[in-house]
Amino acid sequence: MLGAMLFWRFLLIWPVASFDLSGILGQHAVDELTDKSFAQHMKDNPVTAILFYAPWCFYSQQVMPAWDLAAQKLQIHEPPIKMAKIDASRYGSVGESNEVRAYPTMKLFVDGTVFEYDVQGRQWQHIVKWVNKHLERDHVLKSVEDAETYLHDNDLAVVGLFPEGFNSGAFGKASTHYDDILFAEARGEGIAKEIGDHLSRHARLLCETITVGTSNSNTKEVELPRADLRCEDSPRNPQRPEWTDKFSVAVQGQSMTVKRTDKSTGWAQLVQIKCCDDEKKVEKEHPTFPIPSVVMFFPYDERYAVFDGDLQSFHVLDKWINGRKTPSIMRMDQDAMEKIFQPQADSVPALVLITENSDTEEEKVFREAAKKLRGRVHACISGTSSLVEQRLVQAAGEMVPPTLTLIEVPSYEVTEGHYHIPKKYRLPLKGVTAEKMVNFVSDYENKRLKPWMKSEPEPSPEDLKIGAVVSLVGTTFTAAIESEDEDVLVDFFAPWCGHCRKFEPQYKQLAKRLKHVKSLKIAKIDATRNEVEGIQITGFPTVILFPAGKSPKRRVYYHGSREPDDMISWLHDECSSKFDDRPPQVPEGQGAESGLLDPDEEDL
Length: 604
What we know:
Glutaredoxin; 4 domains; 5-stranded mixed sheet; 18 helices; 28% helix
């Protein structure tokens, strides 16, 4: 879907993951098939997902850890879903019979029907969502052990705790909207309470996933976010249960030392260690999750939240989840850019404070307002120096920091197959308070704000009298085309466009020949320096006629020859007001030439 969005492709910069899996290839967490066992596996498992890979393929190496993690999550489905893999480069007959044309290839087999992998991204969450989409099955937690498996390596998680027979249609519908959030249900009063009590312990323990990374030496020291955390010796991300690398972890104050114990060498895996606060230091009081309820876990802010709205309202629940899939305030970086500006089912705008300084009074007010706006906006603080920040500044429009801008995020429906320029709204920061920021967002939600449009300075009355082509800018465009008595022809151009430069003399000649027609205005606007609400320009030059009449104004795009005679013929057909294209005769002795160039004959 993102491939069709020129603007958002420009705004988002997708990173390419790169990591070394040496030492763990060939070790598998799911069934490893051969040409002899493949047919029997398919017979025994009519519903199964198969990864066709090649061990020498870099992209196969990338997806294999995610495939193993997805297999763990799908084991708690109701019923469980089997996953396997096969070296299709070694067992070519199996690959050929299953039409494997590239590595890796992922296929889901459901009672003889085959589904190709059709989801963007190859993280384990994407694989799980792909399977869920075709099977319409849910994660069902039947025990505390299932809950542990579910929460393991899963930063964003939503759990429904429902009594038997409870209608969780809104929960099920919401679960289909997110590729990066995993949903699960515990059904039945007894098991829901047992799992709820276990989750409450998880909720009150503040845990962190500490990325240690690779190491060339036997030990590596990393800084912890706070002192006296209890850290596990087993890495959180072994990729495969058979991973033989062993480690010991020692914590002193706010420093963690990781040491490899099975060898005296370093390690090539991206090691992550789970660290939690000491349970003895955690308050004895802990939350009690009611039945029924929906609980969401996330690795920031308050760490968990219990839904307090109508469990039967999909839109309310969906908006609540969407508002917590990101921190209450983000710092603009690549990860934040992707989370904020990726098109959403129910889009939430971005409220961005762009500033060159930190710890300012504006930032303090912004942080106070962001707490009150949770779920209504994606709040973000951005500088102006990095490449990602500069792209955001360009999207937000010309400014002198600090600036507070609300930027619309397009929905799937808006962006599908279309070029999209986001609407932007500005709030002056002089004397701003948190209450004013909240009211600003409320005015946006109630459609009481006018978008901020990029615009050049308005031409002076003297400049407008020069030449037959009227120059428009962003702030004068709407009033110019809304006349009920005038047909308005507008050339949307770019100053760097070669085709625009070639068309310019012909357009000036057209305007000069029709200068006497009072019912027709011929104008131009630099579409790179001015924004016009409701009009998306995908190529230059673009010529549009706005026929006279009541609003909403009709638009007619010109696609023919750019010769003045041909354009005049087209205008006769499309203009609301009939006109005579023959200029009035000048009485003899009047209109003597001055010898100076007419403004319409001059080049820009």
